[in-house]
# Entry
Amino acid sequence: MIKGSCLCGSVKYEISGDVGDIVHCHCQTCRKAHGSAFSSVAAIKDEDFNLSGSDSLKSYESSQGKHRYFCANCGTQVYAKRENTPHIILRLGSLDSDINSTEKEHIWVSQKASWYRINSGLPECQEFE
# Structure
């Protein structure tokens, strides 16, 4: 069982299925929300994501139809959810367990922080494809 939590431990989750490929998102909203150069994410099927402490979650609609869920106590970004999709977008920084997923690509490189240089050799997509 894969486990994760927020910084203060109020929000916890377990993943009973597979964690999708890792994508590094450089869009402006991810950079602002995480206070970093990019956000590392992976898809998790809704039915494989079991959350506890949801009373501590707040959400913000960062773009039409996409809500970002974070702990109201410590601010940890836990996941995002787009309307009408069968999966959540897990913020990998909240993981407590190791995963065996593979890094796939960098997306929204067109909005990358000017001070950050990508050196990974992974594919780079100017937007999300």
